[in-house]
Amino acid sequence: MRVRTFATPHHAARALAREIAKALNANPRLVLGLPTGRTPILLYRELVRLNQTGTIDFSGATTFNLDEFAGVPAGDPRSYHAFMRRHLFDHVNLQRRRINFLNGAARNAEAECARYEAAIRRSGGIDLQILGLGANGHIGFNEPADALIAATHRARLRSATRRANASLFGNHVRAVPHEALSMGVATILRARRIILLATGSTKARCVERMLEGRISPRVPASFLQLHRNVDVWLDQAAALRLTG
Ligand code: GLP
Fold first, then answer.
1. CATH number for domain 2-227, candidates 3.40.50.720, 3.40.50.11190, 3.40.50.1360, 1.20.120.330
2. Of 16, 36, 181, 235, which is best to mutate to test ligand 1, by the most ligand atoms within 8 angstroms of its C-beta?
């Protein structure tokens, strides 16, 4: 995995937005995988700015988001879908029909996950997957466990993850769903290129385990070591524990 360290989260976000612009210029029909969380907010702000100044054109792009809370419909302001509308979709020229999201409120979660896998396949597969990193080593909602699930699936959230997501639910941890739908680790690893963005000192330990530890389902992000085309972009705080 190639590691790049930036002075601040702002520098990392700006560089990543430029990288996405470059990928879109090279392939206007790019299929982009997108994360939620606090980390990509600066990136989305920068993408909006580049779109509004005409530097980046999303009109031919397709997007797939990684995950969604179970039981939370897209129209609910607490959903990841609403988060993406607030931070990106409502402000850029992405075509609505090319925005793909797991429907957390689907009655049949299994069928919904199968639909999503098929939609990714039909799009030709994800060209560039942007990832965040959970402080406990999760990617998407693939939580540390004895074993991981390869395909898109219904996932049980750990308490630490529910706490980390409480801000979307008015800071009421108890209101955060216990389950979510998430791309699986194999779904993520099928992307042609992956860039993981992690910033802040709370991620430093996990970044170290992801890059320098063994591949283990206890650190789902460590499976990225198996992929040939992964960039890990960090700020100085997140890179603090790296030896190299
Ligand atoms: C959430 C999301 C992940 C995200 C992670 C990190 O639970 N499901 O896709 O990468 O947590 O969030 P943050 O960037 O807020 O630290």
1. 3.40.50.1360
2. 36
